[in-house]
């Protein structure tokens, strides 16, 4: 698979499990932990990433204009294909994130909009989750690439 380039469109931090998603212009990635200040820390699901193009396609069939923050991902990226990216590396700015798999939507998606959970259940529709490999600061507008290393 060839490298593709995109950009960070939005960043959110989750204060607590089930809590609100707070928009950020900048955030800090911590290797082996995730996003500084985010509720999810450690393990292989340290950060969640959603494709803008996939979100727009799926959400338009459910509820036009639905805010992507309702998906509850940490990063919204554009211009990169996240489908079948398990094992690949997402570079955000100077930091890397190893993609471990696709994110499956939970019942909170139907609370956001009726039918959203079913729409996001298509293969790779709910985005991906990964492990932070390098410390670094990221910001909305940063270049994003997906590669094999």
Give a quick summary of the entry:
The chain has helices at residues 52-60, 108-112, 116-120; strands at 4-14, 21-24, 26-30, 34-35, 47-51, 75-78, 89-92, 95-102, 128-132, 136-139, 143-147. The protein has 149 residues and is mainly beta. A hairpin with a 3-residue loop joins β3 and β4.
Index terms:
3-stranded antiparallel sheet, 149 residues, M1 Pyruvate Kinase, Domain 3, globular, mainly beta
Q: Your description of this structure?
A:
By secondary structure, the chain is mainly β. The chain has one domain (about 5-145): Beta Barrel (M1 Pyruvate Kinase, Domain 3), CATH 2.40.33.20. The protein is about 15% helix and about 40% strand. It contains 3 helices and 11 strands; from the N terminus they run βββββαβββααβββ. The longest helix is centred in the middle third of the chain and has 9 residues, at about 50-60. It starts with a strand and ends with a strand. About 35% of the residues are buried. The mean pLDDT is about 85.
Mean pLDDT: 86
- How would you sum up the major sheet? 7 strands, mixed, barrel
For the largest sheet, list the strands in their spatial order.
1-6-5-9-8-7-11
CATH superfamily annotation: PK beta-barrel domain-like
Structural class: mainly beta
Strands, total number: 11
Could you tell me the radius of gyration in angstroms?
14 Å
- Using the coordinates above, name the CATH class: Mainly Beta
General shape: globular
Low-confidence stretches: none
End-to-end Cα distance, whole Å, is 11 Å
**Helix and strand succession?**
EEEEEHEEEHHEEE
Q: Please identify, by name, the CATH architecture.
A: Beta Barrel
Beta-strand content estimate? 35-45%
Supply the number of helical segments. 3
CATH topology: M1 Pyruvate Kinase, Domain 3
- The figure for the number of domains is 1
The percentage helix is 10-25%
């Amino acid at each position: 698979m060839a490298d593709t380039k995109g950009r960070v469109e939005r960043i959110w931090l989750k204060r607590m499990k089930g809590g609100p998603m707070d928009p950020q212009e900048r955030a800090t990635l911590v290797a082996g932990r995730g996003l500084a200040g985010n509720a999810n820390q450690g393990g292989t699901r340290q950060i969640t990433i959603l494709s803008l193009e996939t979100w727009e396609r799926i959400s338009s069939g459910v509820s036009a204009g639905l805010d992507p923050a309702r998906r509850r991902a940490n990063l919204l990226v554009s211009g990169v294909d996240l489908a079948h990216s398990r094992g690949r590396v997402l570079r955000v700015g100077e930091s890397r994130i190893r993609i471990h798999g696709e994110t499956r939507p939970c019942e909170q998606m139907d609370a956001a909009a009726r039918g959203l959970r079913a729409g996001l259940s298509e293969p790779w529709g709910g985005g991906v989750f990964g492990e932070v490999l390098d410390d670094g600061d990221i910001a909305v507008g940063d270049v994003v690439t997906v590669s094999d290393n």
